Amino acid sequence: MNIALITIGNELLAGFTVNTNAAWIGNHVIQTGGNIIWHQTIGDSKNEIHDSLNQIPKDINAVIITGGLGPTHDDVTAHALYKYANDIPVFDEKYWQYLQDKLAKRNLKLPEINRNQSMKPEKGTIIPNPVGSARGLHFQVDGKDLFVLPGVPREMKTMMESTVLPWIADQSAGGLTVRTIRTTGIMESGLAEKIGDIVDALADEIKIAFLPQFTGVDIRVSSTDKDAVDQKVYEINVQAGKYIYGYDNDQLEEKVGQLLNANNLSISTAESCTGGLVGHRLTNVSGSSDYYLGGIVSYSNSVKENNLGVAIETLNKHGAVSYETAIEMAENVRSKLDSDLGLAITGIAGPRGGTDEKPVGLTYIALADGKDTMVKEFRFLTERILNKNASCQAALNMVRLYLLNE
């Protein structure tokens, strides 16, 4: 099924908001048998919306439109679509009362400006919004199905998953099978080299794409032949298994948590340059209290010494960013919080603080289990946020490999 995507919002055009909706929609649509073959991002203007709709290629079966369904003056999408679809908005008293009652339970009063979100089409249909107030719209115009959704990512995703994606799957005969293999700890070129023979031997009906990010590389395998996809995923797993931590929507912190639970082990963290990011990711997982005991963010040397117990002699002789300091951080946080494993990170995130001897991006990650303490040195880049994210990913991956005995 050929699908057009129109993302609406002045904030998207100006760059104030990153258009993550487009990437999410494209990725999920293809897995249900659809394919985004045309995409425009436009401003909050009725004329721009009409112009964009009139430019849609003839071979499009459905159009997904996001943004501009809020209650303020610049939310003009619904007005534009009613006119384009030659439909009439009708006030939905029942839904208006529902919204008022919903807000009243939180001791809030719904402003009159929200009344426009209680309109419904006379001929088209409503797309329910389980998590917000702006319902979506579904029109049929000139043989095309138009789906209009809010631009708020959480609301859009929920409505896509509950209504639009099932519709696409139902309408798409013989859709694509798509599997995403998630890897970390290896560069795209290294990964391509490892599975080069698999890629070289690909049949025409199956596609493999590398999707690199700074924290890892995803491999997307797609085909209308499900068995062929399963076979290629198996082959890739055989040759690159050490670097594969999951599939599709799996997150590294989830896999680490599952391994900790399976081994009946607990972990604590001592973080310097990452400022608590590892603890943040671990606790993003429901049930993480079963294995994550807590952490110490020892950003300054005084906290490393006084709260974490790193010897002042170690800090003076080797520095805060050193092999030796990382060892003491990992061993001491394990002891202080009485966990099975202690994970520590210390590094120079940048852009300042580096020297010729210890450049920006230098990071030490240590993992202590009470018997041995392993330490790895990493040399990341010069951009602060990238270094924090890369350090966090490398630390979680170190735990994963340890638990897998690799």
From TrEMBL:
InterPro entries: CinA (IPR050101), CinA-like_C (IPR036653), CinA_C (IPR008136), CinA_KH (IPR041424), Competence-induced_CinA (IPR008135), MoaB/Mog-like_dom_sf (IPR036425), MoaB/Mog_dom (IPR001453). Coiled coil: none annotated. CDD domains: cinA. Residues 4-171 form the MoaB/Mog domain. PANTHER family: NICOTINAMIDE-NUCLEOTIDE AMIDOHYDROLASE PNCC (PTHR13939), NMN AMIDOHYDROLASE-LIKE PROTEIN YFAY (PTHR13939:SF0). NCBIfam families: cinA_nterm, PncC_domain. This is Putative competence-damaged protein.
